User: Fold this.
Amino acid sequence: MKKKREEEERQRRIRRERGIESDEEDEEKEEEEEQLPPLYVPDEPNSIHCGFYSTHDPNKFWVSMGSYDAGYLYECDFPDEKKNLQLKREDREDDIGDPCQAVPVTDSNDVPIRNITFSKNGQQVIFGFEDGSIRIQSINQDGLKFKPNTSHGDLTGLGPYWTLNVHDNNYGEVTSVATSMDDRYIFTTGTDGNFFVYRLMTQEQIEEAKAIAKAKIPSARVSDVLP
Assistant:
């Protein structure tokens, strides 16, 4: 970071000497940079609820976190001494331990994900939330070295989803989620003392239902559009 600032200052000085940039423009840019809000870092690290290996790189893994860090899924590197040493040489020690990427969990209202499991066919991921709901979401498997199973998967290509409020919203945190060996049923348990079993639609049934729904939508006719 220090070397980067020094290089930026050197480039500004060169532009001022050549008349490309005035001191006033430089000051305006500095003021704009100063207006950025400071990065908030909690005093105490937030809890990690679950994690699993990444499919496309054996040196990475995914985690779901709670509290302030909820609402995203984070892909991280396993400790790498060579990489850490390089970051130290570049005065980037603050970047050590940062996640490689953060994938937003859309429409989750930043509710922490307590459990993550994958269907046996690797086409869907099931999230168990702290508010007692579950989400079944399709996965884009294009480009994966191998297909996900119940212990690992790739979350960079999350697709359409549907959500079901299963357990109590206030004290029914989902403690576990599992699917049957044939992916026909899904099982959930929660802190509300309940155990639920649901029939899970296969990907073929989902595609068939989507095709039927699409076929029911009438196409626009010229007489409906033109006066």
